[in-house]
Sequence to fold (329 residues):
Amino acid sequence: MGRGTMAEIIGTGSAAPEKVLTNFDLEKMVDTSDEWIRTRTGIRERRVADENTATSDLAAQAARRALEDSSLGVEDLDMIMVATVTPDMNFPSTACLMQDKIGARRAAVLDIGAACSGFIYGLSLARSLIDIGEYRTILVIGAEILTKITDWQDRNTCILFGDGAGAAILQAGEEKKGILATHLGGDGSLGSLLALPAGGSRLPASHQTVDERLHYLKMAGNEVFKSAVRAMGDSAVTVLEKVGLTSQDVDLLITHQANLRIIQATAKRIHLPMERVYVNLDRYGNTSAASIPIALDEARRRGLIKEGDTSLLVAFGAGFTWGSAVIKW
Ligand code: UT7
Fold:
């Protein structure tokens, strides 16, 4: 710890495209049913960006709302981190592109590549930079347009994903509240179970990669499911142990929103009743790095997080990566 400061979240914001794609719409596109999707995943509908919208647009919208919520101006931002697996382009980074959109010229800019765990990785890094006194105010965003890397012919994956962005502003505070602890982990040996195979230096874009549909996300759902349940449970237990808390101290659990059964398993692992778990994947599907900050913003705006509360955030994603955070409000 640096100088007795602790990073606290002083504002949140989120954004999602207007267009809604329901399970019934999907029934017309692939061999699936609303019933299968609801019972296997908990998802009812998701948001889909139009062709003119890129990830930095949603990120900028969420950022503006977080700035408004915190009563700060863009000139207050020392750094911007954007967690995403669907950048506008390979480079410049999405953080650079959205920095320009909101006019935050003073801010250092960084993209985070930790897939669905990216927002928690961002929180952890931002908190550390604030705690050591390097920066005072950091904007952390999770933003995705997964529907543009979704294979709409693959029923195993196309029912799962949606678009959106969520943002949180962290600032050095003096009081005993803020991000109490974070825990991060990863296992690169299982990377191929959830990946976007082509378009990088391993398999550059070619006619063949396009013909073989290798620019779309591929996932071995069931394997990912099992790892997610294990890693999220372990990470939740570890981060609570770090600060000497138990699930009885947790007022609200916000996990990555990939599958209701995974969320239920995580809650069960730490003996937390579902009444204290925030779920919104029925309306957004899996929005990868955006899912936790969107849920966090909604929960705050709905009055589900009060002064003095303790929240637990838990994520899991491609890589594999995982992470969690305990926040005292
Ligand atoms: O965000 C990063 C982390 N991602 C996740 O955490 C996702 C983790 N995985 C999951 O959420 C689940 O594994 C899925 C929802 C993707 C799949 O659920 P599952 O219970 O693991 O099903 P399954 O893959 O074992 O497939 C069961 C059956 C298969 O049929 P057979 O082989 O048993 O005859 C699939 O072909 O369901 C079939 N199926 C479908 N049926 C109707 C797969 N997708 C669909 C579909 N509609 N959309």
